[in-house]
Specification:
alpha+beta, Nucleotidyltransferase, domain 5, SH3 type barrels, 2 domains
Amino acid sequence: MQNSLREAFAVWGLPASIRVDNGLPWTTTSAVPSALELWLRGLEVELKRIRPAQSQENGVVERGHGVAATWTEWETAAHLAELDQRLQDAIWRQREGYPNPAGLTRLQAYPKLKTQRRAYRSEQEAAQWSLQRVDEWLSQQVYERRVEVNGRITLFSSTYSVGRPYARQTVFVQFDSQTREWCIHHEKGGILTRHPTKEINPEMICNSTLAKRRRG
């Protein structure tokens, strides 16, 4: 998914936000964000989720998917390369070949579609992507976790110790952007322990190797 977005960003530039549903790959089965969302945050692209089971909130996109499926007749494609070419043809037709009632194509009616507000090049991503943005955003989030019987919680691809006395209790986790530590709070508010983050780093986020864990 990240490579597909990189290709799209290279053509259209970086958007301010992307509106998505609540399924993979945008989100995970856990409350914690996906590697994809953290990567987008590092590029200063906000991920806006619609409410669960409210697909009409993303109606334009859903309608666009329906049109694309009709135009490409994807079920008859012999292989992925053929489907990809059909998609490219459909995109061209929708933006540059299909006129509206006034006789203008979408690109003629909205020429700013070709204007990149924030240019993006994959080879320059390291200079555009910011771990500090990710840290600052994470520090504003609070994640609820349930301590397992062994006294540990799962967070992203890692496990962190809380202590057996807190087994089966609910704790709250927040990221300290100054120390780059996970702060684990008791439900009554006191800090139980702190752990340096094992997974919030550019390599795991930008290469999408940040594993998804089950709900804790």
